[in-house]
Amino acid sequence: MSGFGQALGFGIVSAALIALSAVAMSMQFGVTKHANFAHGELLTISAFTMVLMQKVTQNLFLDAAVGICVSAALAWVINKTILQPFRRVVKRLIIMLIVTASVSQIVQSLLAVGFGTNYVVLSVPSETGRHIGPFVWTTIDVIIIVLAILVVALLHILLHYTSFGKAQRAVADDVDLARIVGINSGAVISRTWLLTGAVAGLAGSALAVTIGTFSNLLGFTFLLVTFAAVIVGGVGKMYGAVVGSLIVGIVTEVSGYYLSSGYKQVIALGVLIVVLLVRPNGFFATFVADTKA
Amino acid sequence: MTANVTEARPVLVVDKLTVGYGKAPIVREASLRVSAGEVAVLIGPNGSGKSTLLKGMAGALTPMSGTVVISGEPDQDITGNPPERMNRHGMAYVPQLANVFPSLTVVENLELGMYGTRRGVSERIEYVFAVFPDLSSAKRKTARVLSGGQREMLALGRALMGKPKVMLVDEPTAGLSPRYQDVVWEQLGRLRDSGVALFVVEQNTRQALDEADRAYVLVAGQMRREGLARDLLVDEELVRMFIGEGLGAG
Ligand SMILES: Nc1ncnc2c1ncn2[C@@H]1O[C@H](COP(=O)(O)OP(=O)(O)O)[C@@H](O)[C@H]1O
Ligand SMILES: [Mg+2]
C-alpha cells in the first residue's frame, strides 16, 4: 500500500507538471484554433535559460523567472513574426501545423548548435522526500503542486473576471464577431501567446528542476503527454486539460510502479489511444466543435 | 407613427458603394442615407447582395469604391475602417447569423458591447434590460441555451450597449415565429424612438414596408428603388416586380 501511495504521490506531481504545460496549450489552442507543435520548445527554452542563468546566480527562483520571461518572449515573437503573417494569407489549418512543426525543428537545431545534443545539467540542491500523508514529496514537489493549483486558479479568475479574459473567450467563440463588437482580436491573440508562453515556461522550469538532467529534446518529449492530457480532457477547455493531466499523470506513474518506469511514454500513448477509440473522432471532433460554436 | 423623414438630417450617408468578395463586385454603386429616429429597410430578392452591402458598410468587407460617412461635427469618413473601429464612430452592426457569443452569459455578451469602457457599464445593462425585459430574466444563462428570439434580442441589446448613432441589422426576424417577429419589430420601433438611425435588411417585404419609414430595393446588386415605405407599398411596378405573392399572401 505504501508503495502504491508513493506512486500515487509521484503521479500527482507528474500531473501538476503536465497540467502546467497542458493549460497553456489548451488556452492557446482555444484562442488561435490551431495546435502548436513548437509548444514543447517553449518548455525547453525556459529550461536551457535556467542552465545559463545558473552561471550568474544560484537562486533557482530567479533563474526560473528569467526562463519564464524568455519563453513568453519566444512565444510572442513566433506569433508576431511567423504565425501572424501566415494567418493573414492562408487560413488552412494544415499550413499552421506545418509552420509550427518547422519552428519546433528550428529551435531544436539552434539549441543543438549552442549546447550540443548531449545532456546538460541544472544543479538542484539534493533533498530526500518527506512523508506527507500517504505521499512522499520533496519541497520542490510541493512547490510544483501548489504552483499548478495557483496557476489554474489565476487563469480562472482571468478568464471570468477580467476584461481581457472575457475578450479571450469572445475570440475563442467567434473571432469575426469579436472584431465586430470592437475587440482588437490580433492584440488579444498576441497577448494570449505571451501569457501561454509564460505558463509553458513555468512548466519547463518546473520540469527542469524536477529532472535536473536533460537535452534539447526535453520539451519535445513532453509534447506527447501534453497532447494526451489536452485531448483526453477535451480540447480547449481549461478544466478538461486539468482532468486530462490528472488521468495521464496518475495512470503513467502508478502503472510505472507495477511495470517498468521505461513504459511511461507508452502508457501515456495507450491512454490517448483508448480515449480516441472511445471517442473515434477525438481531436478533430473537438476541433470542429470549437470552431463552429 | 412614421417619422417625418424628408426634414431630418441624415446620420449615415453611403455614396456609390461597390462591394464584393475578392475581385468580383456583388453590389455596385449603392447609395443610401438614414436619419436619426428613422427606420430604413433594405429589401430585395435572395442573393441580391443585401448582406454584402451591410458587410461593406460595417467594415467586415473592404469596399472597392465609394464612401461611408457618419455625419456629425465634423463628418467622419469611415469607409473601409476595420470592423473593430466602427463602434467608436457610432456604428453598430448586427449580423444575421452567429451574432452572439454562445459560451458567454447574457450579461457577459452585453458587457462586450461596451468593450474598452469601464464606466457606466452596469447602468447601461439596466437600460438594455428595460428595453428587452426578456433578457433580464435570462441574464445568467449562456447565450447557447437561448431561443432564437432571445438571441436576436441579445444581439440587438449588445449593439445598443455602445450608444450607437446608427445600427445596421441583418434580417432580425428570419427564422422567428410570427408572434416573435412582431415583438422584434416593436422593439426596433422603440430603438428608433430613442433616436437611433436603423438600417434593417428584411425578408418579409410586407412587414418591412409596414413598419419602416424609408425603404430601399436592391436587385442584382443595384439599388433599383428608394422612397417612403408607404409609397413603395402601393407602387404597382414594385409589387409586380417581385413582392406580388408576398403581398397577396400577407
Ligand atoms: N463569402 C462569400 N464569398 C463569395 N461570394 C459570396 C459570399 N457570400 C455571399 N456571396 C455571394 O454574394 C451574392 C449576394 O449574397 P448576399 O449579400 O448574402 O445576398 P442577400 O443577403 O441579399 O441574400 C450571392 O450571389 C452570394 O452567392
Ligand atoms: Mg442576407
Describe this structure in words.
The complex is a heterodimer of chains A (293) and B (250). Chain A has helices spanning 2-32, 39-53, 60-89, 93-115, 139-161, 163-173, 175-180, 185-211, 218-233, 238-258, 264-278, 282-292; strands spanning 120-121, 130-132, 135-137, 213-214. Chain A is mainly alpha-helical and 293 residues long. Chain A has one domain. In chain A, strands 1-4 form a two-stranded antiparallel sheet. Chain A has a two-stranded antiparallel ribbon with strand order 2-3. The longest helix of chain A has 31 residues, at 2-32. Chain A is globular and about 60 Å long. In chain A, 48% of the residues are buried. Mean pLDDT of chain A is 89; it is low at 281-293. Helices cover 35% and strands 26% of the residues of chain B. Chain B is built from 9 helices and 10 strands. Chain B is an alpha/beta fold. The interface between A and B is medium-sized, with 19 and 27 residues. Adenosine-5'-diphosphate (ADP) binds next to helix 1 of chain B.
Give the tags.
A: 293 residues; mainly alpha; two-stranded antiparallel sheet; 12 helices; globular; B: 250 residues; alpha/beta; Rossmann fold; six-stranded mixed β-sheet; four-stranded antiparallel β-sheet; 9 helices; 26% strand; binds magnesium ion
In short:
The complex is a heterodimer of chains A (293) and B (250). Chain A is mainly alpha-helical. Chain A has helices spanning 2-32, 39-53, 60-89, 93-115, 139-161, 163-173, 175-180, 185-211, 218-233, 238-258, 264-278, 282-292; strands spanning 120-121, 130-132, 135-137, 213-214.
Strand-pairing-aware structural class of chain B: alpha/beta
**How many individual β-strands of chain B?**
10
Please state the average pLDDT score of chain B.
89
Total domain count of chain A: 1
Helix content of chain B: 25-40%
How much is the radius of gyration of chain A in Å? 19 Å
- What is the multimeric organization of the chains shown? heterodimer
Helix content of chain A: over 70%
Number of E-type strands of chain A: 4
How is the main sheet of chain B built? 6 strands, mixed
The CATH C-level name of the domain at 10-101 and 165-241 in chain B is Alpha Beta
- SSE run of chain A: HHHHEEEHHHHEHHHH
Distance between the termini of chain B: 21 Å
| The CATH topology of the domain at 10-101 and 165-241 in chain B | Rossmann fold
Q: What does the radius of gyration of chain B come to?
A: 17 Å
How far is it from the N-terminal to the C-terminal residue of chain A, by CA?
A: 46 Å
Low-confidence stretches of chain A: 281-293
Name the helix and strand elements of chain B from N-terminus to C-terminus, one letter apiece: EEEHEEEHHHHEHEHEEHH
